[in-house]
Amino acid sequence: PLMPFAECGAMSQGYIGYHLQQTITDELNKNSGLLGICGKSDFRDMLAMKMDGDKLADLAYNMYRDSIIKHIAEYYFKLEGKLDSIVFTAGVLENNSIIRCDLVNKMSNIMGISINNDMNDNIGVGKELRTGIITTNESKIPVYVVPTNEEIMILRDTYNIIK
After folding, report:
1. For residues 134 and 121, what is the distance between their CA atoms, to the nearest angstrom?
2. Can you tell me the mean pLDDT for 113-138?
3. How far apart are CA 15 and CA 6, in angstroms?
4. Which of 41, 95, 108, 115 could join 35 via S-S bond, C-beta 3.0 to 4.6 A?
5. Are 76 and 69 in contact (CB under 8 A)?
6. Element (H, E) at 86
């Protein structure tokens, strides 16, 4: 809330802009995305709701999936189909074979890729494989799953800043 001031001119005009920016940033960061659509911010929770037939979770899943496809397709067309590979990484795409399979299948006709279900199902946290290719040998564009390591990147960035 705005702080009370004795007179209108006593408040810095910059405060209003700052306050509005903080309010909007908080709203976007805390109450939008999956949470804003289905009430859950964790993909695993949303997926469980979707599997139980929740229509809002299904909508959130489809919007999430379609957003990823939109970004991949945008680059695919900008590069005139000359992609070396597609890499799924970080959190959801690194660890969830359902969304990876759905994404590849949705892009299969246009991009000439097809999923290797065995490889896709055997990559992720707590599985024997953490990294690998999840498309068939016939695919025009290979799709990889590669785990991220944010901690090592933060360590490297910090080291480079202080050295």
Report:
1. 9
2. 91
3. 16
4. 41
5. no
6. strand 86-88
